[in-house]
Specification:
Two copies of one chain form a homodimer.
Chain A lengths: L10 H9 L4 H8 L4 E2 H8 L4 H13 L3 E5 L7 E5 L1 H4 L2 H17 L2
Antiparallel strand pairs in A: 1-3, 2-3
Chain A binds a DNA duplex (20 and 20 nucleotides) through α4.
Keywords (chains A, B): DNA-binding, Transcription, Transcription regulation
Protein name (chains A, B): Transcriptional regulator, MarR family
Organism (chains A, B): Faecalibacterium prausnitzii L2-6
DNA sequence: CGGAATCCATCACGATACTG
DNA sequence: CAGTATCGTGATGGATTCCG
């Protein structure tokens, strides 16, 4: 979790600093509905490497947006989901989806 | 402007492909209120280079989000603003700002 | 299954100089 | 003022190997 002093003054810049990178918004899009397992996420995001998925998830956890639950089973069973703070980002995902649909509807 | 075939199937991914990079969302935040001149934008974004600002603006124009109006004066006078399509992105900016404010309000 | 560790590639981004 | 043209670098992301 960042401290107040590390964050930009502008709220938009603050949010951007949390969802920066190529994949976090797409990860949020997936976690929106339910918890996901690691390999399940990687398969669905198609194109993301293990390293980048690991790094992205860890940053999101560190920022308080996501949680990691290890069931301590063999074979390993780990699930990732959104914290209540992470769920506060869902209006952003919804706005992105709305715009994406609109954009595709008007281009020829 | 991209064609339908170049865009991802997922609407969120479509939107992300349009606002990718480090600066476009911040540029949108500025253009939200009124048209801006080039140097004015560069000063306000503090940290962005001319090249990156030029590249970002050109992509946004190419994607139909922004326009460029050259007054053909000497000294040069050029203004950048949002198209009606670009204004459809404003809910995204608003959602980002809301979240940024909320995030800063709850961290200690 | 869910990673860690390592190495490598690319390109987004940045610095600098110059121009109509 | 509003760029263009070069050139350089470093963080981000990708490929591969190994492990409990």
């Amino acid at each position: 979790m960042k401290t107040k002093e590390e964050l930009p003054a502008c709220p938009v810049a603050t949010a951007v600093s949390l969802i920066g990178g190529k994949w976090k918004l797409l990860i949020l899009r997936n976690l929106k509905t339910r918890p996901w397992r690691f390999n399940e996420l990687q398969r669905d995001l198609e194109g993301i490497s293990q390293k980048v998925l690991t790094d992205s998830l860890r940053q999101m956890i560190d920022d308080g947006l996501a949680y990691r639950h290890d069931y301590h089973e063999t074979p390993p069973h780990v699930e990732y989901g959104l914290t209540s703070l992470g769920r506060e980002m869902l209006p952003i995902i919804d706005a992105l989806a709305d715009f994406g649909n609109y954009y595709k509807s008007i281009i020829q």
